[in-house]
Amino acid sequence: MKRMLTIELLELDDKISIELCDQQSPRTVRAIVDSLPISLTLNRWGDELYSDETSVKVGEENGTSAVDLFDVAFWPEGSAICLFYGYTPLSRQGKIIPYSNVNVVGRIKSKPNDIPGFLNSIEKTYIKPKTPLALL
Questions:
Q1: Which domains does the chain possess?
Q2: Phi, psi (5° rounding) for residue 96?
Q3: Which of 59, 67, 73, 109 has the largest CB neighbor count within 10 A?
Q4: What is the pLDDT of residues 12-27, one digit of tens each?
Q5: 128 torsion bin: left (phi>0), alpha (psi -120 to 50), beta (else)
């Protein structure tokens, strides 16, 4: 199953389009879809955006310790949605390393031309003031 989701960034007149795919983590994708809409408050760790704890509760499923650029994952330890726009502070040797194992659930489909500028705008507009968003 593939399903398109959106995080609307109304204050920035932009959106993050995500395609969920249940090929790697079908139980996790089902749990996310069953929990929609999901209220998110974002955080930033390097070039990763991740949510505060969500209502989605699922354990590790085909967990991985490295992800690809533009992967979307679920972090079971923190019940968080993770968006990988680049390297985290743990990344090394050209590999994007999450804080701990994640379940890959999809890909970011809307890719900004200026990733650092995009992430800085998200941080200024949504992260620092803790402005909630919705995953629809």
A1: 2-135 (2.40.100.20)
A2: -85, 115
A3: 73
A4: 999 999 999 999 999 9
A5: alpha
